[in-house]
Every structure is written in structure tokens, then in C-alpha cells.
Amino acid sequence: MNRHPQLSSPAPGRPGDSCVMVIFGATGNLTQLKLLPALYNLARAKLLSPKFALIGTSFEPQDEGLFRERMVKAVKNYSDQELDQGEFDQETLDWIAERIYFIAGDVRDPEFYAALKARCAEVRKIHEIEDNHFYYLATLPSLFGEIIRQLGEAGMASEEGGHWRRVIIEKPFGYDLASAQELNTDIKKVLRERQIYRIDHYLGKETVQNILVMRFANSIFEPVWNRRYIDHVQITAAESVGVGQRGPYYEDAGAVRDMVPHHLFQLLSLTTMEPPVSFGADAVRDEQAKVLRAVQIPSPEDVLSKMARGQYGEGKVAGEAVPGYRQEAHVAPESGTETFVAMKLMIDNWRWADVPFYLRTGKRMSARSTEIVIQFRRAPLILFRNTAIEQLTTNRLVIHIQPKEGISLQFGAKVPGPVMKLGAVKMDFDYSDYFGSTPDTGYERLLLDCMIGDATLFQRADMVEAGWSIIQPALDVWKALPPRSFPNYAAGSWGPQEADELLERDGRQWINLT
Ligand code: BG6
To answer: Can you list the domains of the chain with their CATH numbers?
Structure first.
């Protein structure tokens, strides 16, 4: 029996289709730090079609040879750990270098698209590439809509004769709910949803992808994955770095826009979604969107009582004194931008009713650590009535996303000795112990998926809008009530006291694992 086409995913391990990749905003950091190294890693793994080429575009004119040189350097600098030992693969690097082109132009100018279209045709001819294209938008977000409109007008977005056109859109997708909806409406005038790949690099992380495998390829987790056994869930994405040179962007974005509607909500939806009917793109994303729509939208009162914001002041990270946010480059001395946010969310469905989800993310925190903690309920106490409550352990499953990648399970055990004493012990699974480490920038899988037409790990319009809907009340309330206590946490700490109080009010505390 044939499977429904939408419900089957492409065969694993097949190389990308023959295509031309066009990067808009190619002189920016992303191309050098992530995209080129990822293409190199794909080429080494024989996952790039032999008929492939890359065209970089940018507003600033640049000599094509120089651009190529910069890209080659980027591969050497950022591809993987082996490079440190000088073991990079010169043949692959040369192969890639021969396929790098550059064209400068103003993305608002229709003539630029005519020139780009002609260049694409030339490049296709040189390398005998099929008429498939994907456009990677790594420009300022304010240009996304314009570029797609122009691609449409230049006839560069329509799929004809069995050839494909796809567009990868970097985050942030929108500035708030209204602008995300508007952008979706605009781009859908030109593209069908299946041509749109809204990227969230969190979905390129192995352990994030592993959440689905852990939950649905094993039979022991799913029966306890619900309100009956789980007391609460904590999702933390803590960074020890500050804003660095990104002040101009961050001042306007802040921690909520920068991290929550996409990265944190991806973790939330993968942790809480119902089993999809297959790993096909729509089946998985239907369930993610469904659970995001079930998250209670906070009222303005909830924003005040169930959300906390913070901004770092000066402090010490890993023993080194670091400046406060307001002293960073391009940051206003009185800035009211939040660099930390914590929130308690509830999901209104049968599986999760009454289970709180505590989410937090911040810059300049004590350590870099992204983790999902599933805290199980305490076992009935009857047998241990005479044991002090602090000695009674609970089960805790922790999914470590970074820097360590793995899963650990905490459970109670008897401490050896003549008296009945309980202690918490831990079973640890470390990804690299089992599988070793593979060169990975986090973009390999996502680029490959776009080249084979699998959008499972990309955000769909309804998911993006559901995410913005949940945080829109916080954006509104916090805009109306500028913070008075900033800075309210020291760099190198675990965030402001308000975030601790959020859990203390529920008789709980943050679990800081590192
Ligand atoms: C980006 C944010 O999307 O994600 C950054 O703009 C943040 O501010 C980064 O530092 C975190 O990504 P990762 O992969 O380092 O957790």
C-alpha cells in the first residue's frame, strides 16, 4: 500500500538535490561562522550534490576572488575540531572554492534581480546544475519581505517543469505578533508554505532532535509523560556570554524576542507535543502547533505575577570581571532592555493540565547551559514516614542540550549501612561517550533538509504565530511599564531574585545543574 505522500519523510542519508544556493547578506558573520563550514562538512560527508554551486550577494561591492578567499578561510577557521590539528581536507576545500561566486547589488532594485537571475543561469551552465534554487535570507529582517516580493516579480520564485525554488528565512521572524502575521501574509503572496523554510538553529542541535527519538522510539517514557507522574518541567537556556558587539540589534530585541518565541518554544513543543502519526513535516508540525495553541495566553496580571525580567549589572564570569549590560558597546546608559526572562506557563490539555512549565533564559549567567528538567512527582511516602522529607528523593530526568549533550536520570537508592537511609543517585548518558563527536556547526542537517525538501525541522507559519501570541502580552505590559529595578542581577549569577520568587511562590526552586 502506498503511504500518503505528506506522511512519509525523505529517505535518510540521501545527498541534497543538484541546486544553486544564493545567500543574501553573504558578507555577514553567519556565512563565515556557520554556512560555509556546514557546506564543507556536508561535502566531506558526500551529502552535497556534485552539481552544486553557491552565489553570495551583498550590498557592498566586493571582488569575487576576495570573497572566495574569505570563504575558504572561514572553512579553515570554523569547520570542526580536526582542523585545529591541520587535518582538513584540501580536495574538498578546493572543490567548494571552485563553486563559489559573488554578485553585489541593492536588494530593493529590480535590476539587481535581473543580474542575479542571469548569473544563476551562467553558474548552472558551468557546473551542469539542475534548475533548482534556494535563497538563504541572512540580511536585516526588515528586508525579508522585500526580497521575497522582488524574487516573485523577477520570476525567480515560481516552480516550473518539476524544478524547485525554496527560501530559508533566518530569525527573527517578525518583531511581534502583528508583524509576524503581516510577514507571513506578504510572503505567501509569492511562495507556497512548502517553499518556505523558517530556520531555528536550535532544531539543528542533535539533542533537540533526540527529544522526539527519546520520547517516541522508547516505550518506557511515554506512559509517565503526563500530569499523573510529572510535577513540573523546567526549561533553561542560560548563556555566560554578554551581548558582545550585538548591542544595536539586542537593544531593540531584548531577551524575550531573541530567544523565547522560537528557541525556547521549540524545546517546549517537542517536550510536550502528542505523538505525531509519522516523522513527515506536516505531521510533526501539526502536533507542535497544536500544543503551542494550547498554552494559556498570559493575562496582563499573569505577566506581572508569573513572568520576571532582568538585566545584568557588572559582575564576574568564570573569575573574570565583566561590565554590566548598560556599559556594553552600543547600549544606552539607561537602557531598559531585558537580558533575562523567566516565566511560568500552563498548557490547557488533558496531558498537561495543572503541570507548570517554568522557562528561563538570560545572558551573562553563571554558566552556559541549555537543559530540560522533567521533575517527577514524589512517590507515596507511607513506607518512609520516619525519614526526613529532605532525604526523600524524587525522580528527575534531565535532557542536556549544551554544552554537554546527553540525558541523565536521578532516582533514590539506599545508602549502604545498617540504617535505612536514602540518597539520590544518577545514571548518565553522554552523547559523545557513545557516538564520539562529529564535525557539526548545527546547520548541516538544516541545509541538507532544505536541499532534499524536508521541512520537518523548520517552523511553519502557524507555529511562529502561536509562539508570538503567547509572549505578546509580556511585550505589551513591559513596554507600558518600564523596569525600575534594572540592573537587577549580577553578571555571573543565576538571574534576578524575582525569578527565584516565581518558583518559591509555588514551593519549588530552579534546578541549577552546573
Ligand atoms: C541566537 C540569539 O538565536 O541564539 C543569540 O540571537 C543567542 O543571542 C544564540 O546567543 C544562542 O544559540 P546557542 O546555539 O549558542 O545556544
So the answer is: 19-200 (3.40.50.720), 203-376+442-504 (3.30.360.10)
- Residue-by-residue pLDDT tens, the chain, 514 positions: 343 333 334 445 799 999 999 999 999 989 999 999 999 999 999 999 999 999 999 999 999 999 999 999 988 888 764 444 456 789 999 999 999 999 999 999 999 999 999 999 999 999 999 999 999 999 999 999 999 999 999 999 999 999 999 999 999 999 999 999 999 999 999 999 999 999 999 999 988 999 999 999 999 999 999 999 999 999 999 999 999 989 999 999 999 999 999 999 999 999 999 999 998 999 999 999 999 999 999 999 999 999 999 999 999 999 999 999 999 999 999 999 999 999 999 999 999 999 999 999 999 999 999 999 999 998 876 666 666 656 667 899 999 999 989 999 998 888 888 877 778 889 999 988 888 877 788 899 999 999 999 999 999 999 999 999 999 999 999 999 999 999 999 999 999 999 999 999 999 999 997 7
Q: Which residues contact 336 (CB under 8 A, 6 or more apart)?
A: 311, 482, 483, 486
Residue of minimum CA distance from atom 13 in ligand 1: 202
Q: What is the CA(89)–ligand 1 centre distance, in A?
A: 29
d(CA 458, CA 199): 5
pTM over 0.70: yes
Grouping H, G, I as helix, E, B as strand and the rest as coil, residue 224 is: helix
Pocket test for ligand 1, best of 169, 202, 246 (most atoms within 8 A of CB): 202
The answer to whether the CB of 239 is under 6 A from ligand 1 is yes
Q: Which residue puts its alpha carbon closest to atom 2 of ligand 1? A: 258
Do 73 and 33 touch, CB atoms closer than 8 A? Answer: no
Residue 349 CB neighbour total at 10 angstroms: 14
Residue owning the nearest CA to atom 5 of ligand 1: 258
> Cβ distance 322 to 314 under 8 Å?
yes
Strands 307-310, 340-345: pairing kind:
antiparallel
- Ligand 1: atom nearest CA of 262 is 3
Atom of ligand 1 nearest to the CA of 402: 16
CA-nearest of 338, 390, 343, 340 to 501 is 343
CA atoms within 13 A on the CB side of 210: 16
Classify residue 219 by its DSSP letter: S
- Three-class secondary structure of residue 182 per DSSP: helix
Catalytic entry in 232, 262, 263, 400: 263
Catalytic residue check, 232:
no
Cα–Cα distance measured from residue 156 to residue 133, given in angstroms and rounded to the nearest whole number: 9
